[in-house]
Amino acid sequence: MEKLRISRILTVKSYTETLRSFKRGETRYFELVYTDYTGFHNARTRLKEQKWGKFDFEKCYDDERKLFKITRTE
Q: Which of 10, 19, 54, 62 has the highest local Cβ count within 10 Å?
């Protein structure tokens, strides 16, 4: 597996603003901690309701770390 660069959530865990910072076609990996999984899903739903961008989510692992792969598709 290629060496992954793990991204960090912007500011005070603003999942919506973190997703808004993605460029179309960009992929980032986040280490899942506490309620991050739910936070990202809720943010994606809010942005979808506002018709702002589309995102693909995928859980993956790097060694023993649980990661969340997020790609902005639109």
A: 19
Give the tens place of pLDDT for each residue, 45-65: 999 999 999 999 999 998 888
CA distance 61 to 1: 10
What pTM, to 2 d.p., does this model score?
0.78
CB-based contacts of 40-44 (< 8 A; 24+ apart in sequence) = 40/15, 40/68, 40/70, 42/15, 43/15, 43/16, 43/18, 43/19, 44/19
Q: Hey, is 36 helix, strand or coil? A: helix
Contact 53, 20 (CB under 8 A): yes
Asked whether 67 and 27 are in contact (CB, 8 A), the reply is: no
